[in-house]
Design goal:
Blueprint: E1 2-3, H1 10-14, E2 23-27, E3 30-34, H2 40-46, E4 58-60, H3 66-69, H4 72-79, E5 89-91, H5 94-97, H6 106-111, E6 114-116, E7 124-127, E8 130-136, E9 145-150, E10 157-160, H7 169-172, E11 178-185, E12 195-196, H8 197-207, E13 211-215, H9 218-222, E14 239-242, E15 248-249, E16 256-259, E17 268-270
Parallel strand pairs: 3-4, 4-5, 5-6, 10-11, 11-12, 11-13, 13-14
Antiparallel strand pairs: 1-2, 2-3, 7-8, 8-9, 9-10, 15-16, 16-17
Bound molecules: zinc ion (ZN).
Residues 63, 65, 139, 162 line the site of zinc ion (ZN).
């Protein structure tokens, strides 16, 4: 999987200190985009090695906030080959699709072949034997879900999106060998429904996946107070890496590769 963007939250988004493109995954014969925020399609089209939006099978939203969802309509346009080929799966919470202010346009909803609404306790079939389990989150009044990906014979992995740290995450994510966690602040802020680095490391020290990446690094990118808080993050049994744009995680070996240069021939270095 590849981090198209690693920003999050309004201030790092509006200044585009980093991209807000979400992530691209390829797993068990299925590929797709999760949380395509502003600039996602542009960065997908510019990615090297190339990523083909026309070959993506699925687009998933964890929630409707604009730093996670603005490009969902153009990504569906790509998946459906300009709307001419009914194909693809859209996974999005109910309030991203219905009501008076859906972020997925009704026009777009007609074009994608299948739409699946995540529910706690349910399973979503992405085809090719890949199953996704939604995990309900608590995030400032919107419907929000993390996702756990499973396929027989492959490593299980998951994402924790924007959320207050919930006590059941420890049990729900315990089988994930790789975890991507949205961590927005260094230390816990009780009035905000976001996970801090301190809380993420506490969770990791209990469920100890092989590798974890912290992303959605909002305040970490805009506040001088946060300098240094993205260093020495490993827990005793988990390699913990702060995400950078273009970073690649091999979901078989769990090796992490940082993109060191942009352009036609970027270099990748193993961390
Ligand atoms: Zn959010």
């Amino acid at each position: 999987m590849k981090y198209i963007g690693t920003s999050g939250g309004r201030f790092s988004m509006i200044r585009q200190l980093r991209s807000t493109g979400g992530l691209w995954f390829r797993y068990g014969g299925v590929q797709g985009v999760i949380d395509p925020g502003p600039g996602s399609l542009a960065h997908i089209c510019a990615a090297r090695p190339a990523l083909e939006i026309a070959s993506a099978d699925v687009v998933m939203l964890t929630h409707k906030h604009i730093d996670h969802s603005t490009d969902v309509n153009v990504v569906v346009e790509g998946i459906t080959h300009g709307g001419f080929d009914p194909r693809g799966i859209l996974v999005a919470p109910d309030d991203a699709l219905r009501g008076s202010d859906p972020v997925v346009l009704k026009y777009t909803q007609k074009r994608i072949l299948k739409t699946k609404i995540p529910e706690e306790g349910g399973t979503i079939d992405l085809g090719s034997g890949v199953a996704v389990e939604p995990v309900i989150h608590l995030h400032h009044g919107v419907d929000c879900f993390g996702y756990i990906f499973r396929k027989e014979g492959l490593n299980c992995w998951g994402i924790i999106s924007d959320s207050r740290m919930m006590p059941y995450f420890r049990q729900r994510y315990s089988s994930c060998a790789f975890l991507s966690i949205n961590a927005t602040f260094p230390d816990k802020k009780p009035r905000l429904d976001h996970i801090s680095i301190a809380e993420a490391r506490e969770l990791l020290s209990k469920i100890h996946p092989k590798t974890a990446v912290l992303t959605h690094l909002g305040a970490m990118l805009t506040s001088g107070e946060c300098a240094g808080c993205l260093k020495d993050l490993d827990t005793p049994e988990t390699k913990v890496v702060p995400a950078t744009d273009g970073m690649v995680v091999d979901l078989d070996s769990f090796k992490v590769y940082e993109q060191r240069a942009c352009g036609q021939n970027p270099e990748y270095a193993e961390l």
